[in-house]
Design goal:
Structural class: mainly alpha
Strand order of the largest sheet: 1-2
Helix content: 55-70%
Distance between the termini: 80 Å
Number of strands: 2
Strand content: under 5%
Oligomer: single chain
Length: 1466
Amino acid sequence: MEHPLLLPKLQSALSCLYSNNSSQTPQNRHEAHEFLLGFKSSNVRRMVVSRVQSQTDRVKIHAGDEDNNDSPIGDKYPGSIFLSSLALILQSRNNHNFRSHERIFAAQTINHRCRSIKIIETFEIEAEDGVECGVARLVLGLSAINKVDDASGEKSRMILTAWLERYVPMLVHRCGGGGSNQGGCTPADGTLCDGAELLSLVLQRHSASLLADTSNPDEEHREEQIKGTLIMLTVAVAMYVSAFCDYEEEHQYHQQQQQQARSPWANSVLSDLGSALSVTALRVRYRSVRDKHATPLPEPSCPPLIDMLINAMNAVKESAETLFSQTLQHQQQQPNHLAIQTAIHQAHQYAIQRSIAACVKAIPETVLLPLGQEDSGHRVPSVDRACLRAASMELRCVGTSHDNDVGTGMDKAWKVLVESEHGDWNHADPKQQEASASRLLVCCEAWARYVAVPIHVIEVTVGSLAVRYLHSEQQQKAQAAAFQYLVSIFEAASPSLTPGDILTAALGVGGKGGGGRANKKNANAKKKQGNKSKKRHDKRLGRAVAVLDGQEDGGTADAAEKELLARRNAACVTAAAVFGISLTDGASIAEDDTGFRLAAATPSTSTHGIISTVAAAATSVLPHLLFLERGDGEGKSHQMWRLELFSAIMAVIRRMCASPIRDVRALAYEPLMVLHAALNSVDYVSLRMEQVAVDAICECALALATSCGYPPGYFDCLEEDNDEELEIERNDVRDVARSVCSLDSGFNGTHKSPSILILERIVTACNTAMQHSAASGQLPPETVVHILSSLAKPLNKLGKTYKEQPSAIGCAIMTMSLVALGSVCDQLISSFESHSLSQILPLSRLALMATASLAPMFSSLAEITRESAASDVEKEMITIFKRTLLSSLQHSLLSTDRIPELLAESTLPVTRYDVKGAMRGPGGEDHVGCIALLRLSHESDYLTNAIFEVYGSTILHDLSCLYQGLKTSELVQGAGWQGVPYSTPYTRRIILRVISRLALHEMKGTNDQSSNGGIILHKLVQVPLGEMRSQKERHFSADKLFRVCEAAFDLSFFTPEIVADLFGNPSDDLGMMFECVITGYSMLLFTFDADVVWQQWGRLRGGALSVLRTCLNENISDYCASIISALIKAECEAATVQSNHGPESGSNIFNDGVVGEEMVHAGASIMLIRECLDRIAKKKDQMEKCTNECRKCLSVLKDVAPIVMPLLLHQSPEANSHVDPRSTIAEAWFLTMTSLVSICRNHEQIAASLVGDDVESFLGESLSIAIALIFLKDMGTKDASARAIQRGMSLDGPHTLAMLGFASECMLLGPSILVAGGRSILSVIQVNDAVGQSNIGVTILAASLLRAVSGALPPWAVEETPTLIQSMYVAMGSDCDKLIQILSAATKVTASAPFGAINSGELLAGRYLDVSNVHIESFLRQSKEVCVKGNWKKLKVILKAACGGKKKDSGFNLKPQLTSWEFERL
């Protein structure tokens, strides 16, 4: 028997890759894998066409020349890929050693090729005769017709007729058909259906009509129609045979009662073949038109898409019935004739039903785009988007149910499905009934994901079909399909869906090919788009809408609005059906235990399918029910169904929130938040429905809070880790409570919005619970304190609004919340002596979190307190506020003193949440008592005044005692965890910051330095200074450095005014700290060991920088400037010495544990100047002071530049045995220069004062350093590749980002800066001025940018280059001709002396610009076009093309982030 040429190789490769044979080597498997990849993607027809065109072009250019260097085509894949795949599917059943993976791979190959390439390239059966005799012969024959003007149609008909006569019989024979067995197959053959014989009969009946249509003389169109029809017929046969074989295998499987599970290969095969059939029908019915914006019309001879698929299956069905009739005639004498007849009939019916169902399911999944389809992973076929748009319009066309009119969309698909099932879904046999229902529901689910389901289809598929299986535990397959169908209907009506999303899908705008099917769980989740991406998408969508409206007289946007409304109406009708609600009178049409009424009532009914479906229904239906209330009056009987349905859904959501199962409760979060958002967005809601919604939301929020409480005994062992799942749930519940009470929309302080009603109800419930616990002498419930602490954001908003628009309800809510919080604090204060720490800790932690979070509301009330109260109610609120503020302060002080920050060793470095015994917020690092005190003291001056009013000046004494106690405990404990409870030094320093803030406020208020606050502050400041003084005479040791470091950090936590005052009157005590840092730099060693001494020195360096940062927040004194200058010089000198010893040298300083990522990066001292410049830039007043400070910063930078700049250009390669300090120093330097440029550009007064300091030359020198760094990188030449080890530091890091940003901003200062930069670079680089360019410095700058794109900088730097050239253009006065002249010179300028990686005579721009003048002129012409049009984004593509294209496998990293320079927690 003949077989396709590629079939043996294909079977061998699949066997090698998928068999369990241990004799196969990895090399064999790799070769098999490579063969199969090439097999799927090979396109011999396209290669032949390309080769023929190339030869034709060469003949035109070089007539008579012969080129014998063409490599042969198709040697690797000699034969037809389509035919081999088809044969593998049809013959695999006849082979007793068949494997399911062969069928699956063959189906995937056919589908992939149908989706990815043209029809004429997919059906390449002529390749069975070889490339030259088959493919090339057909291509040359058809292409020759184009050269003939007359009788072209008849000639193409002759060629295609000969092609059919040759290859249709070959197709049949090589698939195993057309033999002498004319009577069909026999049971002895092991199968009741011979696929090859069926294919032979189908083609015999229908191939004669393939050339009947002569309306189109286009030979390619004719070939496409013929091959498209053959693909549809052959794929339909393959689907039928696969489904038939699946039935036989299933029948044999159950008869033999095999224990091993059967592979469900048929699902995958039928899905792929159905997709191939669908996309082929699309290609045949719709052809591309020249106008890319026009929508193509269907081919006149082609029926609608669904009919095309059904016609193909009917052709197979008729042929199969004929074939089986012949078979049964030859078997009439057999004793088991009736059994065979019955088996054939059942298998035939099953095969037709499965195949039609697979086709109907595949149409929307293949042709339509999912909603909001932007990078969603949906596999879009490689078809013209205009054709997809036309098909989308066709498949969205639905008839009118009252006229029994059937459209070409889902109603047509449903009709076809029902006709094919012959009523089996109402069959008496439960198994057959379930199988039929499953097929129907799965197909409907596929359509529901893409189009609006017609109401009359929902009435049947949901009301009569899906509802049957919602609680059917015995029919799990149908039940799963029903749930999927319902969820798809609900998700397709998501409240986040917009008409734009529907237009995007319907018009084929957006989306990319490739990828797998989108995750249905996140089907409606929108990928966040950037502004640029969104603008591009909106532009494409607007253009498509405009074009379509022009063709169809408008209405596209209205159609999208109507479809969106239809989707949401369909979701409501579906929900009414599953909840048993009549749409006519609003009455219940089912008992309370029917449909979803019983859902979540008991664990036995609250399955995941039911609960997730209810959640999806609530998310989509509840907002639309509120929307439908617009303009309706109260109590209309024909609208009562809305209220009934709304109440039914909310009843189930209530049950879910009270469920003992965490996953069930979690599914209620989104519906509640969506419902709240909808309540605030609609203009009108009936009072009854609003009441139901508000009551339900309040009840659900409280139920969720109660359900996520800590279990009894949870805090008995405080050393244990937290239950992270429980903590995550508690955070989620806090988010829900905060969201449903949000006042960000729908509230203006003048009316009772739903949000304010919900907030009032929840706060009232919390207050009531607090009062009950206080009356009974018990601690308040932890869940109540938890929910109260989560309401801080809406309460703060309420307080802010109340200041501007006082309201009775606002006053009442804030009063109740203050009473509740005050009650909690009072109970906790009195319980420290009577209750255990495990009982107090969770409540105290939550109360302190509430206190800290409510600081803005306290501030608003404190501001109101300064004014006269308007009413008695408001006066009472102010009184309660003062009492609560006092209780909160007392509780914060007491808890910080009595409850250590950590009762066990912290696990935060390795866990998301700390141990149970951590007095910290979720994921936080500080004592919540200290955080509460910090927030209260720093929120506003009004609140600070209120603190002194309610507490008195004794608060400073109490805070000082608390601070001393923490300090004493810290000295006893030592550093870190030693097995006893402790608080971290950072917590103690927060208290120091609080004291400093309050004391300074009191001193300003009394204008008395000798006040109580002044005395306490003076004593506290002297403590770290005294510690430094005591260490002055000690030798350089770890203990000395540790003590000085701790004193430095203590000093940095005082207010900037206090620290700046110390620098204004410097003492030896303060200078001793910086001397230790500078001394450390001078003790640089080239060792690989960094002991504890250097670790403590690294911490001290961070502490000293923290003190300087605090000072600079106020001002920069002369002493401060001199210290920063000395630190920068010391660090750069040490870095220079380190670089002199080469990249392999070790270092006791420049390593991650001392000056590196784990501590503070090199260059941090320079960053202090940048922060000072940024602070100056933000000020709008005190210009004289700002000018003086800016001049001091510039003085520091100019002072250190002689040592910083040579370090940046140091030619030692990138370090690999120590942390290279040059990269972070460079980043700090260029970021600081950028800040200096910003001041010069935006502050004229300051810039004018800096002219006398020669700031222009200084910036030009820094610009020249950036240019010189680019020239350090060797890019190789045409004759030699670049060196492996490059000179200088690596430019693959954030310092390059900083450098490019500086260059771009610097050039915007104007032409003078280009002159200054060029003058500076000419002192370093010598060039041959042979191009006649007078401004050679600017030319060198331009050449450096071209060199950067050519590979001197990482590939991600190309993104910044157009901005740099645009800045250069602006600096040249926006003179386009001058810019092009500079770029032209930059492509020619060469070095006259070696510098960096550039040799004498070498082109500065790099080897990729060493090309012909034609190439250069093309680059300049395109650049000028960009310049004229202002389309600078396009310049990136032009630069990449001119400078060597994309640099793949360059070894560079991805685009980095800028370095973090924080060092408060070392």
